[in-house]
Design brief:
Chains A, B, C, D: Catalyzes the cleavage of 5-oxoproline to form L-glutamate coupled to the hydrolysis of ATP to ADP and inorganic phosphate. The structure is a homotetramer. By secondary structure, chain A is an alpha/beta fold. Helix content of chain A is 40%, strand content 19%. In chain A, α3 links the parallel β3 (59-63) and β4. In chain A, α3 (81-101) runs parallel beside α5 (123-136), α4 packs across α5 and α5 (123-136) packs across α6 (149-157).
Chain lengths: 257, 257, 257, 257
C-alpha cells in the first residue's frame, strides 16, 4: 500500500496583508506548514490558522523562516549555526503556544524558503536546525528536500524525517531541483506533474532533465496555496492520487524512523 | 514569617545592542522577567538569559511587551483585546521554547512597560492577558501591580497572582504609582526606598504622597537591572531585607491562589 | 468656478504582499498619497508608485505613518512631539529620494491613519507635524481633515493647507467624522455620497447626523483604492463631479495660502 | 602636500539602545557616516547626529545598510540589484531629510558592513549602488574600499569617489583585507597601524601579509567609534598624521574626479 502526505505553506498573511487561500486549500492537504512571524505571519493569523487546521483535521507544522518579512524569507542570509538554532527554537515555541492553547498537537517542522534551500546543502546549518527541532520535542517530524543534508541531519539527530518532493519542479541527476533560473525548471502541465509524483511514490524513481532515472524517497508532496490554479491543482492531484490507489494521510500517522 | 520575591527585567539586549547588567543582577534576584523579542530581546539573548537564570537558580518568567522595539515597549498603543491575547501567547510560547530546550520550567509572566501599565487600569485588556497566560499553562504565576485590574483579572481567571510593588516609586492614595511626570515620583534615597518596602511586607501598609496610609499586598518587588546604582541597590536591598528577617524566595516556591 | 482635488492612498504594498489597485485608480485621481515604509510600502514599491504617478501626471504626496506595519498604522500610539517631527522628516525624505531620482516634484504631505486622526485633535502633535513638513520644504501642501488642528497648525506654520473631506463618511455637528463604531458612520450609497460632496464644494455646507447644516471647507476629497467597488466609485464620482461643472485638478495647481 | 580624510561610522544607536561614543569621536574625524535606520539608527538619532556633525563642522555622509537590525547589517543577504538601488535611494533620501532641515549639505555616501563588503567584489551590485548615489545627487562622493569594484563603479558612473583604507587591518597581495577569520587580520599596535597608514598616504604603498608591497590609493581612513581604545586611537592617529605633515580635511573639500 502506498501512503503519502500532502503539505502546503499557510498562515502567511500579515496584519492587513493577505496571501494564500488557506481556507480552501485545507480541504485537500493533510499537513499545514504555518508561518511563525519571521518571514510571514503574525500572532492572530497564526492562531486562526491553527484553529482552521484543527477543524479540518490537518497535521500542524511550524514553518520557521529567516527574519526577512520584506523578502518573504526567500533571500539567502549568512546566518551562523547558533543564530539558526535559536531562531528555529523561537519560532517553533511561538507556534506551539497557539497549538497548546487551541488543544492541538504539533506534528512537524518545515523550514521555509531560503532557510529550507540553504539547509538542503549546508551540513552544519542542517545539523543546527535538526538539533533545534529535536531539543524542542524529539517526537516532531522534520521535513526536508528528498536526499538533502537536512533529511540526513534529522536522521542522524534521531528525528523522524519526511522526504519532500515537488510535483511541479524538474529534477537534476544529483537529486537537486532544477534552478528556477533555467527555462525547464517548472512543470506547468498538471497531468505531467501528477505523473511524476505518482511514479516517485510507486517506483521511487524520477526522470531527470539529463534524461536518466534516479532513486528518490517520497513521504510528502508540497503544493502551493496561492496563485491562479492552486485550488484546481489541489483538487486535481488529490483525485489523481486516490484513483491511483495512493492513500493521503498526515505524515504523523504513518512515518517511522 | 515574611517571604518576598525579588524580580528584575532581563534579556533586553538586541543583536549588537546591550542593555542591563544581567550577569551581576542575577546574583541578587529570585525571579527574572525575560524579554521575548517584541519590545526587546532576540532569540540568542533569550537562550543565554534562560541559561544564566538556570545557573543562578532564579525563577524564569516571560516578559511580553508591545511590538515596538524603537520605543522599548513604553509607548501605549491602542491594541485590541484579541491582539493582546495573541501577542502574549506568541511571546510566552517563544520563551517557553528556550525554557524547554534548556531543561527549565517557566514560573511566571509579567507584561512589560506600557502593556503592564495599560493592563493595570483596563479591565478588558487585563482579562485578555490573564486568559492568554491561563490558556498557555494554568500553573503560571501572573505578575501585576498591587491592587491593579491585572491582578484582579488573574485571580478571576483562576491563576496564581503576584502583587508587585516598587521600592523606588511613591504611591497615590488610590494605590496607583505617582506619575513619573510629577517631581516626587521617585524615591532616590536607598534607605528610604527599603524602609517603604519593609513596611509594605511587614505591615501591608504604604504611606502615600497625600500623607495617608493605605493597604497594599506584596508578593514581589521590582528592581532595576541597569543604571549606575543598580547593582549597589540590589546588594543593599537584599542585605536589608535579610537583616529584617525577611526571606527572599522565588515566587513559585511560596505563592498560593 | 469650482475646483477640487481627488486623492487616494497608494503604494501600500509590501514585499510580496499586495494591497490596492493603484494602476487603475491612478486614472481617476489627481493626487496620490504614497506610503513611506512605516505603516506600509517598501523602497521598490515607492519607486514604482512614483513612476506610475508621474506617468499619469498625478500630484505626488508623502504619506507618513506610525511605525506599525502589523497594524497598518491604524493603532494610535503615544508618541512624543519630537518623535512625530522626526518620523515625518524621515519618511518625507525617503519618498523625496525617489521623487528626485525619477525627475518629479513632491507636491504634498498627508499623514496616514492613526497619525492623521491624532493630529486632527492634538494641537502639539499637529504643530510638530506641520513644522516637519515646513522644515523639509515650505512649498509643500499639508493635507488635514477639514476644520482640524492639523489644518490650523499648517496655516499657522505658513504652509499651504488642503482641507480634506470624505464622501463616504457622515459628519458630526462639531465637524468631526462619525466614529466607525457607530452604525451610521458610513455612506454606502454612491449617489448619496457624491451628493454630499458636491454640496460641500458648491455650498461649503454639510448636513450632520444631528440634522443640522455646518460650514465646511473642501480642497480635496479622499477616495479608497482597494475594496470591491473602489474603481466603480472612482469612475462614478469623477463623472458626477465633472457633470456638475466641478473641475478636478491636482492640489498644487490651484491651492493658495 | 598630503591630505587625507578621517571617517567614522556614527548614529548607530537605536531607541533606548546606545552604541558608539559619537560626541567624543566627532572632535577627531573629518567625515561622519550616519546610519539611516536599516542596519542601525532611528529618526531621532539621525537628527541629533546630523546636528552634532554640523556643530563640529564634520562632513556628513549617508551610511546605508542592509535591512537587518538584528544582525547590524553585517550578515550578507542575497539582494537583487534593483533592491540594492532602491534601498540606497530610500536611505540617502531619509538622511537628506535631516541634513536639509538642519541646514547642512550631504557630502558623501558610504555603504555599511555587508553591503560595503559585497559591493567591493560584486560588480553589478556595485553599479546599482553607484547609480543610486548618482541619481540622488551627482555631486555626492562615493566611499569604497581602495581598489574595489565599488570605487570603479562610482568612477564609471561619473561620481567623485573616495578610496578608503583601514589602519588596523592587514592587506592581501590582491589588495583585499585579510579575513577576520585569519589570526593576522588585525593590527592591534597603534604605532604600527599609524605607520601603515602614513606610508599609504606618502608612498601609496602597503606591505602585504605575503611580504610584498602593492600600490594603494588613499583618500580616507576609517576609524572606529566604539570599543575601549577608540578615543585613544583617534587622538593618537590625528596627532601622528599632523606631525607627519599630513593635513586632515573633509573629503568634499579636496576630492576631485
Amino acid at each position: 500500500m502506498h501512503i503519502v502526505d500532502l503539505n502546503c505553506d499557510m498562515g502567511e498573511s500579515f496584519g492587513r496583508y493577505t496571501i494564500g487561500r488557506d481556507e480552501e486549500i485545507l480541504k485537500y492537504v493533510t499537513s499545514a506548514n504555518i508561518a511563525c512571524g519571521y518571514h510571514a505571519g503574525d500572532p492572530t493569523t497564526m492562531k486562526k490558522t491553527v484553529q482552521r487546521a484543527l477543524e479540518h483535521n490537518v497535521g500542524i507544522g511550524a514553518h520557521p523562516g529567516l527574519p526577512d518579512l520584506a523578502g518573504f524569507g526567500r533571500r539567502p542570509m549568512d546566518i551562523s549555526e547558533e543564530e539558526a538554532y535559536d531562531m528555529v527554537v523561537y519560532q517553533i515555541g511561538a507556534l506551539k503556544g497557539f497549538v497548546d492553547t487551541e488543544g492541538g498537537r504539533l506534528q512537524h517542522v518545515k523550514p521555509h524558503g531560503a532557510l529550507f534551500n540553504m539547509a538542503a546543502k549546508d551540513q552544519p546549518l542542517a545539523r543546527a536546525i535538526a538539533k533545534a527541532v529535536y531539543d524542542v520535542d524529539p517526537e516532531l517530524v522534520l521535513f526536508g528536500l528528498a536526499g538533502s543534508e537536512l533529511v540526513k541531519a534529522g536522521h542522524e539527530q534521531g528525528l523522524k524525517t519526511a522526504s519532500e518532493v515537488f510535483s511541479d519542479r524538474t529534477y537534476q541527476q544529483d537529486g537537486s531541483l532544477t534552478s528556477r533560473r533555467e527555462p525547464n525548471a517548472l512543470i506547468t502541465d498538471h497531468e505531467q506533474a501528477v505523473e511524476q509524483v505518482i511514479r516517485m511514490i510507486k517506483e521511487n524513481k524520477v526522470h531527470t532533465v539529463q534524461d536518466t532515472d534516479i532513486d528518490i524517497d517520497v513521504h510528502t508532496i508540497c503544493i502551493h496555496g496561492d496563485g491562479e490554479s492552486a485550488i484546481d491543482f489541489a483538487n486535481y492531484i488529490t483525485k489523481a492520487l486516490k484513483e491511483s490507489g495512493i492513500t493521503l494521510q498526515s505524515i504523523g500517522e504513518f512515518i517511522t524512523k
